[in-house]
Amino acid sequence: MRCFTIIRTLEQNDIPVKPYLLAWCDAIARHGGQPPDDLESWLPWQLADYVKQRIDHFWRA
Hints:
Elements: H1 2-12, H2 17-30, H3 49-60
Helix pairs in contact: 2-3
C-alpha cells in the first residue's frame, strides 16, 4: 500500500513518477545501498534543486 501512496503523492505534486523513482534508486546505489542522509530533500513537496536535476536527467533519458 505504501508504494501507491508515494506514487499518488508524486502525481499530486506534478512530479513524473518513473524519473523520480529512477533518481531515487540511483541515489541509493550511489550511497552504498542505503537511502541518502538528506531524506527531506526527496519529499515531493520540497524537492531540493539537485533532486530536481536528477529527475530531469532521467526524464530526458
